Each structure stands twice: as C-alpha cells, then as structure tokens.
Fold this protein.
Amino acid sequence: MMNEETARPVGRSRSVMTELVFPTDTNHHGTMFGGTLMKYIDKISAIAAMRHCGKAVVTASTDSLDFLAPIRMGEAVELEAFVTWTHRSSMEVYVVVRAENLFTGERRVTCTAFSTFVALDDNGKPVPVPPVAPGNDAERKLFDSAPERYQQRKKRRSQRFSTTE
C-alpha cells in the first residue's frame, strides 16, 4: 500500500513539452510522422519518470498508444506526461498529446499513451521508487486503474512471441 510519508504528488513528475511541426516532421499527407511523435512521447515520459524518482530510468514498454487525430504541418504539438502509479522499481507514465492551430487557437487531443519506466542505480540495476499520491479525481482514476494495466502488461510479456525460441 501507499506510504504517505514517502509518496510523491503527481505534480512533481508533471512535464510539458511543446514543438512546432515542420515539413521534415511530416509524411506525404502533410501530417506528423507517428515515429517522430513516438520519440517525443518517450522523451517526455522519461523526464516525468526521472522527476518522480530522482534516478536514471530506462523504457520498459509503451502500450495503449492511440493515435486519435492527425497533427498537421505548422501546428504546435504539446505533450503532457506524469507518473500515475508505481510498482517496486517501475513507474507507469501517462501522456496526452494535443495539437494546436496557432492561428485560430483550436486545440484537440491527438494521442494518448502509457509507458513504463524502470529506475536504475549507478550500476544499472533496478532500484525501488517512491509511491505516487494522486491529487485530484482524474489522477485518482488513473491510479486506481493502473494495477489492471500492470497485470495486462505482465500477461502480454508472458505470451510474447519470439522467433528465436
């Protein structure tokens, strides 16, 4: 269970990154490459995880990456990430991506994702992380539903297909 003395508020990990979408970031449709967005998601998630635990981290998984709407050339893309839940040495990070037309001010959610990061000590070994203290209803909802996502990830890992076996 959560140790109230060591639990860290979600706000401690909250991180925001904004980028302008240039022609080199887009495909032949004039929309942002999914791979470029995935790179940004990984980067902002790592920052949020490091802010939470104060340690080096590595990406363990990215799942529930849902592209909801295209991001067009010339728009600003804003990524917001925060730690929603922790296990022993792992942290679940939620990311919401919004696109903004800078001329009209229209903003829309374009992508959401969950990533898992593992905290490492100076020797590259997993190290325990502090628990999370949700501060509002949205954070509590993500926190309360995280154990089920954790179990789904565990199940997926146990069923993973490999061509080397």
Remarks:
- The beta strands are 8-9, 15-20, 56-67, 76-86, 90-100, 107-120, 132-133.
